[in-house]
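Exam revision sheet. Question 4 asks you to relate a sequence to its structure. Input first:
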Amino acid sequence: MSAPHCSPPPADLPPDDVFREIFLRLLPDPSFLLAASLVCRRWRRLICSPAFLHRFRAFHRTPPVLGFFQNLWTLSCPTGRRIRFVPTAGPATRISPPPGIQDWVLDCCHGHVLLYSYSDRELLVWDPMTGDTHYVGAPPDLVGEDVAAALVCAADHVDHTDCHSSPFQIIFLDCKDDQYWLSACVYSSGTEVWGSWTAITTPSLVSSESSALVGNSVYWKINFAEEDSNHILEFELHNQRSGLIELPEGVRENYMSDIHIMPAEDGCIGFAGVSYYSIHFWSRRIDSEGVAGWALLRIIDMDKLSLSGVPAGDMFFW
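Answer key, structure tokens:
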């Protein structure tokens, strides 16, 4: 008679530190961490730990881009405006704004989205990852219908990889198209009040496209509607002062009046412009004598690249 079959004792599982090191090296797409957290309670406890999530963000440094928000004009909504999220990290990524304010996205920065309701004149700071919402009434004495705004983290972070619970500021621009008179006002989540208006005359309306934050200043593009509108707007956060910066000569003609303000590769404010089949990257630098000027940093020839089998140059040309 054969001896009864005995199951071998269960193998000892690795300690928590080993699992943490493995999870730390997963791809930064949130879907990988989500899948791992559903395996068992132990893995979920390790992954959801605030200490581990902080290490994970620091290890991967630059957070992944899950997609982008697109403002659309439509006849299907009473306001004529609609927001759509376009995923880039995979078809499973779906992010929808909370109900209520769904008019327009004014800015996305440091893990938060800034939305604006034209009918209610109300702002919403929304964290898509945590679902947290912070409603803010528009600044008092708002006049214009053409508005722009920027959302910045007010915490003293080095790389802004963990701003979910940090205080923030909203820089709100009220643009009056009859005289191109622009007023700026700053909201602080710490005090929950708006500051005083500061005004400046601009050669044209400020574009409502997303702003660019570089150092202590926020920048917007000015629409190329007038002959002398070859400028960008700078707003200094510390002294809350606005100013105009002239762009290089020929920007209107060379880039068909279409540029995108962005931080440059060297850490200065810059812009990208499309010229036929190439993208030109510019940066505003200050020389040893303290004189500021624009420099062409790099040119990418899109005619030599392809996107999904289609020549990228053809897309840019048309």
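Marking note for examiners. The longest helix spans residues 50-60.
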